[in-house]
Amino acid sequence: MHHYPKSVTHFTRERPIAVFKDNPVPQIELNTYNDFENLQEPYLMPKPPKNQEFIPVNIAVLTVSDTRTEATDISGKALAECLTGAGHRLAEKIISADDIYQIRAVVSRWIAAPAIDVVLITGGTGVTWRDVTPEAILPLLDKEITGFGEMFRSVSYQEVQTSALQSRALAGIANGTFIFCIPGSTNACHTAWNHILKYQLDSRHGPCNFVELMPRLK
Predict the structure, then answer these.
(1) Is the pTM value of this prediction over 0.85?
(2) Are residues 111 and 179 in contact, defined by beta-carbon separation less than 8 angstroms?
(3) Which of 4, 60, 114, 207 gives 20 to 30 Å between its CA and that of 28?
C-alpha cells in the first residue's frame, strides 16, 4: 500500500496531481505513482540518503595475472586508488598467478580475517583456458550476487557493445565478506567502480547499499 505525502490532495485516473500548500506552483503532474515516493514538502526534492555518515570499510585487492608485477599492475593500482579516493581503507594488495588454488588460498585467508570487509579481484574472468577466477571463487561463496555480473555487462555494453558478453564478472558473499570479480582491463575496473561499487559501498547511498548489510552478515 502506498503512503502518499500530505501535500497530495487529489489525483486523476490517468495521471496523479500533486498540490503543494504555500507553493508558488499550485500543482505538478507526475509521470508515475512511484514519483510520490520521492516528494518532499515544499519542493520536489529527492529523499536524503538513509545514513548521512560515511562509513569506511576495509578492502583487499587481488590482481590475477601470470605476467603483471607491482610495477606493471595498472588495474590493481586503479582499484586501490578508487577505493582510497572514496575514503575506504586498503587492507592489502596482492598479485596472484592464474591458478585456481593460489587464488583460493589468498581469498580464503582474507574471508577468514574479521577485519576485511570486501575483496576486489581483477583479472581471470574471460573465457580462455587460463581464465579461472570464477572457478576459483564460486566454491567459496555462501551466496552469489548474480545482479552484479548482470549489471556490469549491461553497463559494459554501452562502452564495448557485444564484447561485454565475454566477461564472466561475478560477485558474492563468503563468511560475511563481499567478493567482486572484475575483468583485468583498467577500463573495466573503472567501469565497475564508477558505475556500481562506489555507490553500493557507500553507506549514504539509498535506498539500500551493501555497507548497511555488513553488521547482519557476521
Answers:
(1) no
(2) yes
(3) 207
